[in-house]
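Aim 2 progress update. The chain analyzed this quarter is reproduced below.
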Amino acid sequence: MDIWDAASGHPLGQPLAGLMGAVKAVALGRAGDLDIIVSGSEDRTPQIWNAATRRSVQVVDLVGPASAVVAAPESLVVAVGSVYAGYLWVRRTDP
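Predicted structure tokens:
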């Protein structure tokens, strides 16, 4: 998954590695003092990424493809939805 500069329209650095299916949903948020990216894709593995290092800090297997993701601003809550179920993560420590 590429990260793009909204002003220039150019990609910023290397793509996030490890996604196997088409990305269907993306959200930005914070986990404590850490900027995060949350991705949901057809490969059934929503991921929480450290935005600074571009490394995945958590991967969870779902029953079906993720079709929606939300990262609550300034909190430790991430929600992921699929056609089969909804999932909620509450991080008690920074990723």
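Strands lie at 23-31, 34-41, 47-50, 55-59, 66-71, 77-82, 86-90. The longest strand covers residues 23-31. These observations will guide the mutagenesis experiments scheduled for the next reporting period.
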